């Protein structure tokens, strides 16, 4: 969608981790289609997994595009350190940057939670017995609790731990954005309280973009690992889910 507005944003950054995730999911879709042709999928279980996988492909494209759009508008901003020192054009581009940056960090967790639903179904983790509304991270703990498919669980935990700090920072921002007062407005109000006539200091946009990039890397590596492991398992078991 964003590519129509800004050109080919979806693959503008040529992130090899994103591309590899697309490759692994694409191969899984081909495998599912082949087996549906062979067995006609009377229960529609394979079709459901194919639809979910296509949904994850679309979600990763939207996440990648959000990051690319945020990066695009960041390049239009000459960061002077203060909102008041920006030109009207810069303030508009900054607002656009904030919009796509927020869209990006919200989508990081949306993709992970959708993947959690996929994992819960394919590996029968029964996460809903632990928590009716669960996140990817709740599903991840089920591998250890259930002592099942622990080799996959260990791989996913290692990825989670490698990106723990940026993911925690993004999660705090996501929670503030969804559940509390708009986070940058809250920060602006605090600054005004400190000094009514003081200039509003901008956040470190480059640091935030780097954290979002790390979030995309974590999501992409997680998707690649899940679909590579799952496809290999399907092949060994003749894809009977």
Topology (elements, then pairings):
Layout: H1 2-6, H2 16-39, H3 45-74, H4 88-122, H5 136-146, H6 150-162, H7 164-179, H8 183-194, H9 205-236
Helix pairs in contact: 2-3, 2-9, 3-4, 3-9, 4-5, 4-7, 4-9, 5-6, 6-9, 7-9
InterPro entries: HEPN_Cthe2314 (IPR041394)
Organism: Paenibacillus glacialis
Domain Cthe-2314-like HEPN: 52-230
Keywords:
241 residues, mainly alpha, 0% strand, elongated
Q: What radius of gyration results from the CA coordinates?
A: 21 Å
Shape: elongated
Main sheet attributes: strand count, strand direction, barrel closure: none
Number of strands: 0
Strand content: under 5%
Low-confidence stretches: 188-198
Helix share, percent? over 70%
Please tell me the overall pLDDT: 85
**Tally of alpha and pi helices:** 9
Q: What structural class do you assign from the helix and strand content?
A: mainly alpha
| Straight-line distance between termini | 33 Å
Q: Secondary-structure element sequence?
A: HHHHHHHHH
| Number of structural domains | 1
Description of the molecule:
The chain is an all-alpha fold and 241 residues long. The protein has one domain (14-236). Helix content is 74%, strand content 0%. The longest helix is centred in the middle third of the chain and has 35 residues, at 88-122. The two termini are 33 Å apart. Mean pLDDT is 85; it is low at 188-198.
Summarize the structure.
By secondary structure, this protein is an all-alpha fold.
């Amino acid at each position: 969608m964003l590519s129509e507005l800004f050109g080919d944003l979806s693959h503008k950054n040529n992130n090899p981790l994103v591309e590899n995730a697309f490759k692994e999911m694409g191969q899984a879709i081909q495998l599912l289609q082949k087996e549906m042709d062979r067995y006609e999928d009377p229960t529609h279980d394979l079709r459901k997994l194919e639809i979910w996988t296509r949904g994850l492909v679309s979600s990763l494209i939207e996440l990648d595009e959000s990051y690319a759009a945020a990066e695009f508008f960041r390049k239009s901003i000459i960061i002077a350190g203060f909102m008041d020192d920006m030109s009207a054009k810069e303030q508009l581009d900054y607002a656009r940057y904030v919009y796509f940056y927020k869209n990006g960090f919200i989508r990081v967790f949306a993709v992970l939670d959708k993947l959690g639903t996929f994992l819960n179904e394919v590996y029968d983790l029964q996460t809903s017995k632990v928590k009716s509304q669960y996140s990817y991270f709740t599903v991840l703990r089920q591998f250890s609790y259930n002592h099942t498919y622990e080799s996959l669980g260990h791989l996913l935990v290692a990825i989670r731990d490698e990106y723990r700090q940026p993911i925690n920072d993004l999660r705090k921002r996501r929670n503030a954005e969804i559940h509390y007062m708009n986070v940058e407005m809250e920060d602006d109000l605090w600054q005004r309280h400190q000094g009514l006539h003081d200039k509003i200091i901008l956040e470190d946009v480059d640091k935030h973009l780097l954290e979002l990039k790390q979030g995309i890397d974590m999501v992409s590596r997680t998707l690649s690992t899940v679909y590579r492991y799952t496809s290999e398992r399907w092949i060994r078991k003749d894809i009977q889910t």
